[in-house]
Design goal:
Elements: H1 2-8, H2 17-25, H3 38-52
Amino acid sequence: MLREEAESTGARYVDIFTLMHDQARHGMFASDGLHPTAAAHAAWALEIAARLDH
């Protein structure tokens, strides 16, 4: 559904769910136990950038 909504507006959708899920399994949470660490955010940015270059 998210992909369809993005594409219907002309936006590109980049699915990083698998990456986020793997990070959660490895405990990549900030000290609040809820939000991702800075390293997790950096990995998201790299993944998104790699997919946007194609």
